[in-house]
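Progress note, sequence design subtask.
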């Protein structure tokens, strides 16, 4: 679960699968009998309107007032495409949209960027297509809707009933059954027939952390957010900007010791530069075949690399279980910017 920069270093990736059941600040009140994620309708305040939206995907521009006029239950999902916790939530949202999209539920994904490159419209368009996001997405590049809802987390799901009242919020990934049952309760209140439940699904895509595993918290590399308790070593010449670090010469090395099953590196090419190339090493050698993430490639000499040709996550390490790893990232040349490491259990 990602939070805003106020308290990022305190967030453990291992905690993301534990649903944080906190009523939305504007909807505090008695819990509804229908579901513990929801507050009673009598205590709920009107949801704020969408604000500062610069583009829509998978839908014509709309408003919460228009959806209320159609009697829709609305699930606002705050997300950003580089957030691994958000990505791991997409498979469930895909199923929820397919099952309830014609039963009175509208999901609105509010894309609220964490990094500057996530404000670039073409990047958002590409990510929506690559991640198979088929429900409406509103771009909120200046976080005006984020602020209107008092949101602080990626991902966060805000429940709005058919009368436009903000009934609750679910923070973080996981808790899919709770989210579905809250949606069904609101649909039932609205007089809709929710139909059969989703039921269990086979895990697909990114793997969530496992409760009880001690997994390294997300590591931010830029000067503005480098508050992680995980030490990061830099040798050679680097440029440290607010959001990222960038090697200035071939052979510049970043080292970090982590505990995880899956390791992701958020990286982007330098603006206007050719794609960057980063050698990934585990311990004293290349990434072993059984530990290579899907974005790692090997050359004829057996060295392992990732290519940084767009602004996105690279899956650099995987494995059968949580384990300790000493990871080195060695610049083949300049041309790449490194933002974060994030982890799965």
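Output:
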């Amino acid at each position: 679960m990602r939070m805003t920069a106020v308290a990022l270093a305190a967030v453990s990736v291992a905690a993301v699968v534990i649903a944080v059941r906190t009523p939305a600040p504007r909807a505090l009140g008695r819990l509804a009998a229908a579901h513990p994620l929801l507050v009673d309708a009598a205590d709920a305040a009107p949801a704020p309107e969408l604000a500062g939206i610069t583009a829509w995907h998978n839908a014509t521009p709309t408003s919460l007032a228009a959806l209320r006029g159609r009697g829709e239950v609305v699930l606002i999902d705050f997300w950003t495409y580089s957030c691994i916790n958000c990505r791991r939530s997409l498979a469930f949202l895909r199923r929820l949209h397919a099952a309830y999209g014609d039963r009175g539920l509208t999901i609105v994904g509010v894309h609220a960027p964490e990094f500057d490159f996530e404000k670039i419209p073409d990047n958002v368009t590409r990510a929506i297509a690559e991640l198979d996001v088929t429900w409406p997405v509103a771009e909120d590049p200046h976080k005006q809707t984020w602020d209107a809802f008092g949101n602080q987390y990626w991902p966060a799901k805000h429940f709005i009933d058919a009368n436009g009242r903000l009934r609750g919020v679910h923070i973080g990934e996981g808790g899919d059954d709770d989210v579905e049952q809250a949606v069904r309760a609101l649909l039932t209140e609205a007089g809709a027939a929710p139909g059969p439940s989703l039921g269990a699904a086979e895990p697909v895509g990114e793997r969530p952390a496992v409760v009880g595993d001690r997994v390294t918290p997300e590591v931010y590399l830029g000067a503005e957010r480098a508050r992680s308790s995980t030490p990061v070593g830099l040798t050679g010449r680097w440029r440290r900007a607010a959001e990222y670090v960038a090697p200035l010469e071939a052979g510049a090395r970043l080292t970090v010791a982590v505990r995880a099953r899956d390791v992701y590196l958020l990286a982007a090419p330098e603006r206007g530069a050719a794609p960057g190339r980063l050698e990934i090493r585990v311990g004293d050698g290349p990434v072993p075949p059984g530990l290579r993430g899907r974005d790692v490639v090997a050359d004829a000499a057996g060295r392992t690399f990732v290519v940084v040709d767009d602004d996105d996550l690279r899956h650099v390490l995987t494995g059968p279980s949580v384990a300790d790893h000493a990871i080195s990232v060695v610049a083949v040349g300049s041309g790449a910017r490194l933002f974060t490491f994030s982890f799965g259990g």
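Residues 91 and 204 are 7 Å apart (CA to CA). Work on this subtask will continue into the next period as scheduled.
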